[in-house]
Amino acid sequence: MKRVYLDNAATTRLLPEVLEEMVPYMTELYGNPSSPHDFGQKAASGLSMARQQVADAINADPSEIIFMSGGSEADNTAIRGIAERYSKKGKHIITTAVEHHAVLHTCQLLERNGYEVTYLPVDEYGMVTVDQVREAMRPDTVLVTVMFANNEVGTIMPIAEIGALCHEKGVYFHTDAVQAVGHLPIDVKAMHIDMLSMSAHKFHGPKGVGALYVRRGIVLPPLIYGGAQERNRRAGTENVPGIVGMGKAIEMALDGLDEKAERMKALRDRLIRELPERIPEIKLNGHPTVRLPNNVNFSIKYIEGESILLMLDLNGIAASSGSACTSGSLDPSHVLLAMGLTHEIAHGSVRMTLSDETTEEDIEKVLEVLPMVAERLRKMSPLYHG
Ligand SMILES: Cc1ncc(COP(=O)(O)O)c(C=O)c1O
Question: End of a domain among 228, 254, 280?
């Protein structure tokens, strides 16, 4: 049975071209980039090349890129760093109710340490507006952190507008762009973004490597103390093969980005259009159009997301019932609840996230299998009388 992988928001396949770039840095070019000898300097040039590739992808300067272990570390570093360094300006932070837990739990930690956090509510599509951010701003607001695009429902936030507002008000602006990088064009300068988090494994790079963009002029204390790596901004010997892989992966993701996004959108929209024709009483979650090109999220009434996933898996389709970290727990997704879904409907949600490698045939398989799964589960559901 050919397996269909539709869980690309959880993680993506490492591309063979990316692996090929990484391998020499695990075999012959194994020096420590901090060492002055030839081995070290060859590793150091791998880092420089990757730093340039990552910077180019978001219109930043290479000196503004700090490599680290992934999206979670980047979110922690940005939020805790600003709170620590600029607390004299104020101790109020604005975020949204639908952020990834890497942001939400960091904000909660700061609340326990005397900071005040405003969690902006979202509308039925999971969207916040720039006016909500403006109204929440106070003289002591030090940081606004709003995700670029939501990992569960794919809704894209008005980042350029929020960036312009923060710029005008002199408030630092961080965005968790882990799901957006490699799918949407990003220009940190034009969008007035001060800090941006990204993670390589979401765009066909390796796991355990990511980066934080920090605009020149902002001084962030490190989260990890020790050596002077990353210009004293993140201690620890660099994951050279991973970083080299991240550089290659981002370059490949941006090559033909628009065409790839259009292709994925066409496949995404086939599911959005045709699944409701085949399954009665289902609801699209997230914005109908202002959403990631690769994200589809439906609630299928009267049945459980977990059972849908199991049956899809038995039929060779890998999907998700929310974010990878929350599936496995029985709590309904905080994102769907914030969008106003009842517990019951939130429980019946299934997320399918495409990649550039998803084919028409994969989509046809979903269109065939998911209605059958929904019908079978509904027959067993005590809630369904249809
Ligand atoms: C929006 C968002 N932020 C942060 C993360 C965490 O990234 P990482 O797994 O690289 O720590 C994820 C991963 O699922 C994500 O989707």
Answer: 254
Does ligand 1 lie within 6 Å of residue 179's CB atom? yes
Catalytic residue among 23, 325, 372, 383: 325
Six token digits for residue 120: 């902006």
Sequential DSSP letters for 114-152: T-EEEEE---TTS---HHHHHHH--TTEEEEE--SB-TT
Residue 385 resides in a domain: no
Answer whether 70 contacts ligand 1 (Cβ < 6 A).
yes
Query: pTM of the entire structure?
Result: 0.97
Q: Whose CA is nearest to atom 4 of ligand 1?
A: 71
Question: CATH code at 85?
Answer: 3.40.640.10
* 238 and 321 belong to one structural domain: no
Residue 47 scores a pLDDT above 80 = yes
CA distance 185 to 6: 22
**325 tagged catalytic:** yes
Report which protein residue has its CA nearest ligand 1's atom 9.
71
Looking at the fold, whether 123 and 268 belong to one and the same domain comes out as no
> Which tens digit of pLDDT belongs to each residue from 79-128?
999 999 999 999 999 999 999 999 999 999 999 999 999 999 999 999 99
* Mean pLDDT value of segment 251-262: 98
Residue span of the structural domain in which 34 resides = 16-254
